[in-house]
Every structure is written in structure tokens, then in C-alpha cells.
Amino acid sequence: MKAAVLHGIKDIRIEEIKKPTINNNEVLIKVKATGVCGSDIPRVLGNASHYYPNVFGHEFSGIVDEIGENISHVSLGDKVSCAPLKPCHECEDCLSGNHALCKNYSFIGSREFGAWAEYTKAPGTNVVKLPDEISFIQGAFLEPTTVALHGLLLMDFKPMTSVAITGMGTIGLLTLQCAKIMGAKEITVFDIDDKKLNIAKELGATYTINTLKEDVSKRVKMLTNNRGFEMVLETAGVPETELLCLEIAGNNGSVMFIGTPHTEFTITPKDFEYINRKELLVRGSWMSYSAPFPGKEWTLGAHYLGNGDIEVEKLIGKVVPLDEIAEAFELIEQRKVSGKIIMTV
Q1: Any idea what the Cα angle at residue 252 is, between residues 247 and 255, rounded to 5°?
Q2: Burial of 292 (0-12, 13-18, 19+ CB in 10 A)
Q3: Which of 89, 135, 152, 267 qualifies as a FRET site for 305, CA 20 to 30 Å off?
Q4: Which CATH architecture has domain 2-144+288-344?
Q5: What is the structure's pLDDT at 262?
Q6: For residue range 249-286, what is the model confidence (pLDDT) as tens digits?
Q7: 156-284: CATH superfamily
Q8: How many angstroms separate the first and last alpha carbons of the chain?
Q9: What's the number of CA atoms in the CB half-sphere (13 Å) around residue 46?
Q10: Cβ(134)–Cβ(145) under 8 Å?
């Protein structure tokens, strides 16, 4: 089969490699659409790949091409997506339903070959059937949608609350839509890009704040009657927004960190004291799984994508064929594309 294979830093080659073979508990999927995740960027443009050669791609949809003898919940020809985490299902964390915390896991599209190829395989338990109404490109957004839902569910999200979300990248825009579905009273979003803020407004944000152009503290006090926000979600993964969340949260507020920072930063005593003085509940979110595996995030996400409650068209920066994935990373490196890159096969 044809695949986009990474051989080293910035060295992606379109090659013929061996088509996966499955066992009785696995499913072979003919890949139709795959997203480029933010985590793929340092793997391609830097040295974050676990090994070479490697085939990435963990946000994908496709068609069931072969099924193992023990698989009964999907059939040949079904439209599916896939949970990329392969937990051990045997450790204390897995048996407690905390599969994302498994220390003995593998991962499709990073630790083993993924969906930047014509075919990929997965355990049957990982394969999620998609509604007929979903396009393959929409299906490739299921995995990032589950990341947004997982953060909201972990923080015990409350309806009819004032919500703040920092960072309007793919995860931020999906978190915005999920918070709206779950009954947020008002949603204020923060970013440095007016284009992304405008998209957020179109997708349901009540208020938008450009942190480079506005007096953030003054605007937050005005919007919240000096109380701060009840629910705050961080999705950008940059030091400035990580710290901003503590500042804009209100007394007894909840702060959920979904974004992962990749640079060191210092938290001052004043910043840390926000946690104490406002008695904040601060929590982190990692991936997107719950019991029974892969979890309600996956069934809910597929449902919301299928009925149109979650829109993805405005999140797409560029759609490219498999053969042009190397050129797409050149655009990413040159900052000439904004939004999610989707690869079609």
C-alpha cells in the first residue's frame, strides 16, 4: 500500500509499504481522511518521533475493509473512526476506567504505524461506527472532538454558567461548540488572531477578546460584573494563557487545562495565590477516554457530529491528498496555513 513515511526531520517520503494484516480481534480500515494533529508537527519538523521510519496519523475515518472473527459490532463497508490509544486493559488504571493514564500503552499513529496510509489496523474495541450522515472529513474530527468533551466532562461542567476558553485553535473551537451544547450561559473566548475570533463568534461565542489588542483585565471585569468566570478552559498550551486562566477565574471557579505547554515558564507567587485566594478547583485533562472503553466521549462526539451540532468546515485550513503531505508541512513551517490540515486518501 501507499503511505507517507517519515525517515527523519522534515523527511517525508511517499512509499509502498506492507499492508497491515489483522488477527481475530482486529479490524482493517481503508483510510479515507486523516487530520494533522498539533502533536504531529514537532514529530515531523523536529525530533519528537519515537523512531524512524514512522507513519503518523491518529485522527482519521475510513471504511471497514476486513474484520477479525471475534468482531461483531461493525461490518464490512461500515463508516468508522478509531480511538488511537491502545491501553493494556490490565493495569490498575485501566481497570479503574482511567485508560489514558495507562503506563503500558501503545498508540496508533505515533508508537506504531497509523493512518497516513491507504490502510491501517486497530483493535476492534477501538473502532467506533459513525452515523451515515457524517462525511469522512467530519469523521476525522471525531478524535479532537473527544478531547474537548473529555475536558468538559472531567471538570464536571455545569450548565447555565459563565465560561471562558483560551485559544481558538482546533481544540478551542471544538471546546466552544461542546460547551454550548452542554448548556453554557455565556461563552467568552480569548486569542491573538482576529480571524480565529471571528470564526469563534460564528460558532456561538458570546464575546471575543484579543489579548494583544485589549485590556483583558478591564474587559473581563466588565463582562462578569467583577466576579470572574465560573468555568475556565485552557486549550492553547502556551504560558501566557495557562497563567491567564488563573487570573480570570472567579471565586470558587473551576479551571481545566487541556492544552499542553511545550516551553518552560515561571509561575509567580501572585499567580499561584489566585488558586488559594479564590479557592479554585484546578485540574488537567489528558486525551479522551472513559469506561467502558473508549468511552462516552466517543459516542457523544459521533452523535453531535452526525446531527450537525458540531460544525467543522470553518476549522479546516487545507485539504490535501496523501501525495502532498510533505508540501503541507512546508506550509505549516512557513505559517502559510491556518486551521486543520486534512489529508485524503
Answers
A1: 55
A2: exposed
A3: 89
A4: Alpha-Beta Complex (3.90)
A5: 84
A6: 999 999 999 999 888 989 999 999 999 999 999 999 99
A7: NAD(P)-binding Rossmann-like Domain (3.40.50.720)
A8: 11
A9: 8
A10: no
